[in-house]
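DATA CLASS: polypeptide
GOAL: derive structure tokens

***
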Amino acid sequence: MNVKGMVIVLAVIFCATIVQGFPMFKWGRCLCIGPGVKAVKVADIEKATIIYPSNNCNKIEVIITLKAHKGQRCLNPKSKQANIIIKVGYQITSIL
């Protein structure tokens, strides 16, 4: 391999390592758009997922998976039901 080719390869590798550290989206990438619903029927809940703030999204998100393949709903993290789910989720993760 000639010197020019080696320099080009090294430049590409260098640029790739620098760009990897930058966020792709300036505002983050939250899964929930908008405030979310206030409550969901408890009987319809199959699973609750709590996503804590991170580099991708600076807010807490509570995602409810509904039974019978009815999809997912974002629960407003400030709602009473979400606060209960977050507390229970925190207790479970702190025990493990």
Helices lie at 3-20, 80-95. Residues 28-88 form a domain with the OB fold (Dihydrolipoamide Acetyltransferase, E2P) fold (CATH 2.40.50.40). The mean pLDDT is 80.
